[in-house]
Amino acid sequence: MSAAVIDYDKLFRSDLPPAAAKPGGFPPFNFVGGHNDPGSVPVEDLIAAATRAIRRDGRSLAKYGLDSGPLGYKPLREFLVDKLKRDAGITCTVDEILITQGSLQGLDFVNGILIAPGDTVIIEEMTYGGAITRLQRMKANIVGVPVDHDGLRADKLRETLLSLKSQGIKPKYVYTIPTVQNPTATVMSPARRQQILDIAGEFGVPVFEDDCYADLTWDGQRPIAMRGMVNDDRVIHIGSFSKTIAPALRLGFIVAGWNVMGRILAIKSDGGSGALEQMTLAEYCPTHFDEHVQGLRKVLRRKVTVMMEALRDQFGDEVEFQDPAGGIFLWMRLPEGLDTKRLEQASAPAGVTLNPGAEWMTDTVAGKRWLRLCFAHPSEEVIREGVGRLAEICHREFGVPRREEKGHR
Ligand SMILES: Cc1ncc(COP(=O)(O)O)c(C=O)c1O
Q1: Is the pTM higher than 0.90?
Q2: Ligand 1: which of 126, 179, 182, 186 to mutate, judged by most atoms within 8 Å of the beta carbon?
């Protein structure tokens, strides 16, 4: 008897997003995604840390949650309590930290307990594309607030909150990436942080602070986290090991009080984050994290310098960008009339991938001129060559950069 063919198209939920494209290979000139510098992954030290940790605690793998319960491996949370106190000014206990599968899962959990279809959220008008797509999928009403060199604008936040209030709308949160903003790579000053906290507090709206790039400022200095300025659930804070150690580890964390954490644990149905990764990092980080990140910052600083030079060489003053304060991406504006979504499509066959600005902005029309290029993974050579190819394609499609044609001088 032959099995009937099942027509899944008739079975899928009607509210699913479109199917993902079939995974292809890793493009040769990949300027998208949070990939890290391969040479900086501390392979030998991770092997040593994993070996020690498994020898000592391996038998606890027999339990879901090891011997630590649902919040994650306790020694890793203990490391974070110390680190967050020292670097971010956050005072919290191990019970106020949940280890997540990257900060993406942190975003999902916070959205999961707060956002129902139709709810309003405030985000920076230039922000992490992954945050926008998640909110769109949840059918949230997304309101963008302008940013400047100092991050989210306090005056515009107030105007927005007043306008929403006049319509009887109270947003669920203000999402911000204050330290190495994605995509603008600015760092919000302590004064601006205080203003944002004061305004959000006045309207009774929590701040959702995404701090995943906070260790990657070039000089290693960072202002106190917004969570650290209040040390309570006026700010929910998420962070990650993806940008400092490696994204494939899938380890991040949420800092929140029990009022919030208890609701997150109630919807957490994944059986826990990968135990070997947690055990390895808990062993590695107390003795190696700082030195490792110091080295990584230097490599990233060098790579972005190479990228900025290559862009200047190829595009001259037809591309505008600010020297970033840290991080793994460069955000730039191209001349009027250019459409970076079309540039993305034209570049893909040449193996050059990029983030069109419209996917990183709430104003998708203004976003057409904007472009994000990530520089952590490609080598310096690949950065130079890739920017060269991008310039060729951009010239072919849009006449940008202008080139003096031979014989037409
Ligand atoms: C602002 C921001 N938040 C969260 C994430 C998610 O990272 P991960 O889940 O790897 O920690 C990213 C990744 O690029 C990001 O840029």
Answers
A1: yes
A2: 182
